[in-house]
Specification:
This protein is 42% helix and 22% strand. The chain is of the alpha+beta class. Helix 4 packs across helix 7, helix 6 packs antiparallel against helix 7 (177-191) and helix 10 runs antiparallel to helix 12.
């Protein structure tokens, strides 16, 4: 597994024959899965283009002209200052000759001179629109504050446009090169203060959202003083003892009040109290229950807390210890944490972390989970492993000695019984080699130019045949199949003690440390920072910074939203609505333009209650803000991701700590059903703005994570691998289409749908036999599936009645491109220049691809832009060839999901005007909102039910059709796993079997590989 970090391997992998087809074919094959991946943009299947993109005003033309003018000014400035120097590229080849430089200067001068007349004409039309807007605001009797803001916006436009027009006039009228350069510099310096383009999500090629945690955990500590310092305990240098703090080691053997108290990690709620009572407040029964019911996850730090660990029925050593302590303290039994370094036999470690076959695989799972670990060898053999670990001591008369004492308990260290699932492919007689040959006979692959094309009809037909064969096999041979029979099972080896022996089942390497509570530096924390946009469109002044320990956040509903800044702003929103709100038929383009006169305050909410807001800082509807959010990881420190925020959005922030517990699903489903019932009966009293928008958005992001976790488990099972969800997060938000901007002012803010944006979906993944190349393929396939669900969830949620939602995603764009006869390119540092000469996609996309490749990534994209129902652009993947981590991007101006235009407008108005029940009654009276909620609840419930089927190995399928569905899902998510041999240059197989001799299992780990 050390191969993952060896740079020479990257060079070998890039230069090997057949490399370019490896990733391209993997992605192309995912076209044929039922999961199109990935989706950043869902657009309504519009009955006509005008439905989604209404007639545009002249205001929208100005930004485009200003963007083009700024680029022409930059080009003129660059070429006019070359002083007749020949421009050479990195390879010292001539890029521009003297004649070409002169032609560039002439072309840009001609364009800029012409733009003077264009802007004069546009300026007259813009002022007419501003006057019409002013009249509308007066006619609607807007508050004076709103009228003043409109005037400020107009004055700002007039001042700035005048400066640009003046310099273009000087440029066109003078014949002096010196004066021309001066006019260009003045105009360029002025335009450089503003970004007139539509906002784009920020992207960091070094932080791919779909991947694995790093395999770089430190070695465990063996020194007592060093351990104290790492835990943040102050050590007396002379005595060598730790000073007492709130989380300090215990110096006395007697329990204190702190050993009975709840805290951040040890939460004692009604569920904890009820379970403790059911177990008779008996420490032996409490221990037995935790040991036999909580699955171990190899990760590091307090992540879930006791309550979520109880409901999730799995957790790491910290979380399991927190649950055990909570149940003990709820039973009035003093209990505390113990932290130290332990040594365990490698065979037990392999079983403990997932039943892996290779000792190195066990080490990798510990390390990727962040657990400090190191292998112990005797004479070259890997026999033991040392890790830092957490367990429990409880105080009472239930140990081996007479009287009360501190007794050792470890509810997380355990062993499992594993059973293999059935080999569906072998049972149906599927021949991977035959499929390979048939595929190759219908494929066009050019390794030198870096492109591949597969005939889709043949693959569709073959997959359909495989699915039907599996269905027939299960119907005929296994009509009562259980999930464990199809997928295999993992069962805790039951342990029922009657009295504690007060001894660990492993060797303790260093003296352990006891503590009432966990140190703060051993907790995962979630950070959210919000910033204003600077004049250059980047991160500006900090609005607020927020941090919360993850155990306090898991299972709660977190959101960033906006509210009207003043009573006048709220009144203006109400008055902007047309008189007839039934079906929102009266809302037109002018409504969205006038919205930008309304100012908003940003607010961060937790379970619908405002936790933090921007205070006196407010922003116009549609303003671009910037956020940074992410985790502090006790193993690796803080890692935040940047994203664009549009003032007026509702962003539900979903946290997937280590799986979404069932009570979270059921809680939101009950709220949705309550809302649906009240809407059907027109009973809207008592609602707040978050109940309209928040529950559906939260259901969207958590439903996404539920689907993704199920599918990742399926992929891992069929690849003979282990997968654990690491703390991840993403957003499901309302989306405002904002046309930016005229000198810093948004033109309009139109609600057009929803956006799924998963910022981080990390896993702790490993192949059981430690095959690196299959590990890369595993990570890539989980990434493809993860991004596909960004498409699937909004489709299921918002396809209601006669309205369907179609996804435009990277994979789907590649699929459409292939259907159109376009080539799909795999791009690396060796072929980037030659491939770019063949592409007609946007320059912004090419620049992002180039930046990614410069960091060591590879890219997959198609030749030309594609038009899908009025959306125009391209899609591309960036993939780390050493890890399989990936990112999927579409080249749109407003990255996001647009679904059901009417619903988006209705929800937008409902959120901002929820106090006005009469308005909402009219809006929802003719809406299909109830159908949408029903579909949304169905999607959410499907994720919950699917998770139960996959994870509860004893649950019988209701009938063979369900068993077939589960197996077919395995085929669907596995079909993207086709890989090519880096050495042989031929496609070897699917990589979807578990124990077959047909040629598509462990291909890269065969003899000599």
């Amino acid at each position: 597994m050390n191969m993952k970090r060896e740079d020479p391997l990257l060079h070998q992998f890039r230069t090997a024959q057949g490399f370019v087809r490896t990733t391209a074919i993997t992605i192309i094959l995912s076209f044929f899965s039922v999961f199109y991946s990935p989706s950043l943009l869902a657009i309504q299947k519009a009955h006509d283009q005008g439905t989604l993109f209404p007639e545009e005003s002249v205001l929208k033309e100005v930004p485009e002209h200003l963007v083009n003018i700024k680029q022409a000014l930059k080009d003129y400035h660059y070429f006019s200052n070359l002083n007749n120097q020949i421009v050479r590229n990195k390879k010292n080849e001539t890029e521009y000759t003297f004649a070409e430089i002169k032609e560039k200067i002439r072309t840009n001068y001609s364009y800029l001179s012409n733009q003077y007349d264009v802007l004069i004409d546009l300026d007259e039309q813009v002022m007419e629109e501003f006057d019409a807007s002013k009249k509308r605001l007066h006619d609607k009797k807007m508050p004076q504050l709103i009228l003043d803001r409109h005037k400020e916006k107009v004055d700002n436009y007039k001042s700035n446009m005048s400066k640009v027009i003046t310099q273009l006039k000087k440029l066109s009228e003078t014949r002096s090169d010196k004066k021309r350069k001066k006019a260009v510099e003045v105009a360029l310096n002025h335009l450089n203060q503003y970004d007139h383009r539509p906002p784009r999500q920020e992207y960091n090629a070094e932080q791919l959202p779909f991947g694995v945690s790093p395999d770089s955990a430190r070695a465990p500590i063996r020194d007592q003083q060093a351990l104290n310092e790492m835990l943040g305990f102050e050590t007396d240098q002379e005595q060598g003892s730790a000073a007492q703090t709130s989380a300090a080691p215990i110096e006395s053997d007697l329990p204190t009040e702190a050993d009975l108290a709840p805290n951040i990690d040890v939460q004692i709620n009604e569920d904890i109290q009820n379970l403790a009572a059911e177990l008779g407040h008996d420490p032996v029964q409490i221990y037995n229950w935790v040991y036999n019911n909580i699955e171990y996850i190899p990760s590091y730090g307090s992540i879930q807390g006791s309550v979520h660990t109880l409901h999730n029925e799995k957790g790491n050593a910290f979380d399991t210890s927190s649950l055990l302590i909570a149940l003990l303290r709820a039973s009035n039994i003093p209990a505390r944490y113990v932290y130290g370094t332990i040594r365990i036999p490698i065979e037990e470690a392999q079983n403990w972390v997932g039943g892996v076959d290779n000792p190195e695989s066990a080490r990798v799972l510990f390390s990727q989970g962040g657990i400090p670990s190191t292998a112990i060898s005797y004479g070259g053999a890997f026999e033991e492993i040392e890790i830092e670990h957490v367990w429990v001591q409880a105080y009472g008369d239930f140990g081996p000695n007479d009287g009360e004492e501190w007794v050792v308990m470890d509810g997380s260290y355990k062993q499992y019984e594993y059973t293999e699932g059935i080999d569906l492919y072998q049972n149906i007689g599927f021949d991977g080699r035959e499929f390979e040959s048939e595929l190759l006979s219908h494929a066009e692959i050019n390794d030198i130019e870096g492109w591949a094309y597969l005939e889709q009809a043949m693959v569709n037909s073959k997959i359909g045949s495989i699915r039907e064969s599996i269905k027939q096999f299960l119907d005929n041979q296994m009509p009562s199949a259980t999930a464990s029979e199809v997928f295999g099972s993992k069962e805790i080896r039951d342990k029922h003690i009657e009295r504690f022996i007060n001894k660990s089942n492993y060797k303790i390497v260093i003296e352990n440390i006891q503590s009432h509570t966990l140190p703060n530096n051993l907790r995962f924390k979630f950070h959210y920072n919000l910033y204003q946009s600077s004049v250059l469109g980047s991160e500006g002044k900090n609005i607020f910074t927020w941090e919360i320990p993850l155990p306090q956040l898991v299972g709660k509903e977190l959101a960033l939203s906006f509210r009207p800044a003043t009573e006048e702003d709220e009144l203006a929103l109400l008055q902007l609505l047309p008189e007839t709100t039934s079906g929102l038929d009266g809302i037109g383009e002018t409504f969205y333009q006038d919205l930008t006169n309304v100012q908003l305050v940003a607010e961060l909410t937790l379970d619908g209650e405002v936790y933090m807001d921007s205070g006196i800082e407010d922003f116009p509807m549609g303003a671009v803000l910037h956020s940074k959010k992410g985790f502090f990881n006790p193993a690796y420190g803080e890692k935040l991701k940047s994203a664009t925020v549009i003032a007026g959005q509702y962003k539900a922030i979903g946290i997937n700590a280590q799986g979404i517990a069932g009570h979270v699903y059921s809680g939101i489903l009950s709220k949705l059903n309550w809302m649906k019932s009240n809407l059907e009966n027109n009973q809207l009293d008592g609602y707040n703005r978050h109940q309209f928008m928040g529950e559906i958005m939260q259901m969207g992001i958590l439903g996404y994570f539920g689907f993704t976790d199920i599918h990742a488990q399926v992929i891992a099972k069929e690849m003979n691998a282990v997968h654990y969800r690491m703390p991840s997060f993403g957003t499901f938000s309302s989306h405002l289409q904002v046309d930016y901007s005229i000198f810093g002012n948004p033109i309009n803010a139109k609600p057009v749908g929803v956006v799924v944006d998963v910022n981080s979906a990390l896993g702790n993944n490993e192949i059981k036999n430690n095959c690196w190349k299959q590990w890369v393929n595993l990570n890539q396939r989980i990434g493809l599936m993860s991004s596909s669900n960004e498409h699937i969830i909004p489709e299921i949620m918002f396809s209601a009645g006669d309205t369907d939602v179609e996804a435009v995603s990277t994979v789907k764009l590649l699929k459409i491109a292939a259907e159109q006869g376009q080539k799909v390119y795999t791009i690396n540092e060796d072929n980037i220049d030659s491939v770019f000469s063949q592409l007609t996609i946007d320059d912004a996309v090419k620049n992002e691809i180039r930046r990614g490749i410069e960091t060591g990534l590879i890219a997959v994209t198609h030749e030309n832009n594609i038009d899908v129902n009025g959306w125009f652009g391209s899609g591309y993947f960036l993939i780390n060839p050493l890890t399989g981590a990936s990112s999927a991007i579409v080249s749109d101006g407003y990255n996001g999901g647009v679904a059901l235009l009417f619903f988006a407008a209705a929800m937008f108005i409902a959120f901002f005007l929820s106090p006005y029940i009469g308005v909402l009654s009219a809006i929802f009276a003719s809406a299909s909102i109830n159908l949408i909620i029903s579909h949304a609840a169905l999607a959410f419930g499907a994720a919950f039910a699917g998770a139960a089927v996959i994870e509860n190995n004893n649950m019988n399928f209701e009938n063979s059709e369900n068993a077939c569905s589960a197996a077919v899902m395995l085929i669907s998510v596995g079909i993207g796993g086709l890989i090519a041999s880096p050495a042989g240059g031929t496609i070897l197989g699917l990589g979807m079997g578990t124990a077959s001799e047909t040629g598509f299992v462990n291909l890269f780990c065969a003899a000599g590989e």
